[in-house]
Amino acid sequence: MSPPDNFDELSSSQLRELLLKLFSKFTEIEKVVADQRAEIARLKGLKGKPDIKPSGMDKGTDPAKRDQQQNRPGRGKIRPRVIVEDQILSAAVPPGSRFKGYVRYLIQDLVLSVRAIRYRRERWVTLDGRTIIAPLPEGTDGHFGPELRRFILMLYHQGQTTLSRLVTLLHGFGLAISEREVQRCLTDHHDAFLEESRDVLRAGLQGSRWIAADDTGARHQAKNGFCTQIGNESFTWFGTRSSKSRLNFLDLLRAGHTDYVLNKEAYEYMRARGLSAVLIDRLAEQPACLFADQGAWSAQLERLGFTVLTIAPDPVKIATEGAIWGSIYAHEFLRDAVLLSDDAGQFNIGLHALCWVHAERLVYKLDTFTDQHRTAQQRIRGLIWRFYADLKEYRLAPTAERRLALRLRFDRIFRRRTGFVALDRLLARLYANKAELLMVLQRPEIPLHNNGAENDIRCQVTRRKISAGTRSDLGRDCRDAFLGLSKTCAKLGVAFWDYLGSRLSVPGNPGTLPLPTLMRSREKPA
Fold this sequence. Notes:
- By secondary structure, the chain is of the alpha/beta class.
- It contains 22 helices and 9 strands.
- β3 and β4 form a beta hairpin.
């Protein structure tokens, strides 16, 4: 159907007829597109959301396996962490036999038993009328001993069992304990654990050369929320909130502090985010630069007229983010640390690096419909894989010459044009992230991928699947704290069982240093 020479000469009835034809044609095109999509899905074997397997770039660029086998240390003997009890077994021997020593044979066993102790506490009345009652043993909290509370915490958090199954198991052992009492063991009187979890985050933000961040969905009080992971090779910390915004992430990075600070770093943040110079000067002219909490900061913004402005970007949002960033810097968090992420927008703050595995995955996931498309996709993936392998080698032996060569090679890969429009647009997008993808050239100590953060956060995904969500803020915070402490113990080489026993004052349990102290002792000089 060819268009008319002059639309102005058409009558209303002719325009109406033309419009009906266009609508009919549009409906036919929509049907063709829907049929094509269905056929593509059928040919690919897709049912609903496509099941895209990992591309395998990280493992595929590792050195040859035989080299790994040569350098791989032996596993060695697995030794029990408990005191070995020696027992002598006698043998029936004929007269005249000679004794030739012993043959050792080690057996490990587990003894689970229920013990109920009824304390008869002496009660005295002094001459002045005061009543003195003998104190309970150390570690006793309520009517359940520290060993039982340790077992409940261990099985629920590290064992990832459910509350109902845990109660059933305890009843099977012969314990008289209700589900509500088990719930109290999981949430009540854990202020010391919550404080240590917060201190772990503070130590990690202060002493680390890099940290990684990721998030996943989380349910709290029957509403959808988000659990954010922050950590590296020495620690893991989780925080669940209702939002995944940059403002929320910055608030988590304050590690429990509530102040807002206007300093040089805060103003630099505001300028970088596009806040007008007039509004920044209005803040800087005021003598107050430290605000204790949200109320004091909001009152300051209202006095300066920020809350009535309806311009973009939102002055209140940018100024608040900047003041929180100033607080982070004032507490000596993330002073020189690189933040590694998967390119989620809320994590793009400070010195930011991007995950290469996520970047290559975008190329891997592209839909291809012709041989030309598939050939271009495989060629680009091959170039990226070889470049990624060379980045791994650079991290082991960084030099200025290799750094320059890798930068030039990055340009050649991501500025080329293949004729596959979707792939060319993706390459241009990745090239725009050059500084973040090549942060490793300046800081060879940072990883090339965010797999560690994704592995850490899987325990939260498992917890969500088996127990849905949390109902109280205390329950949410305890879940996050214990899962983070469990991961941190594993990274520091501390058995979570021993850690819980030390904190709950289990008799005979070896003492465990505070986790932040162990983290600082592992920090290597820059």
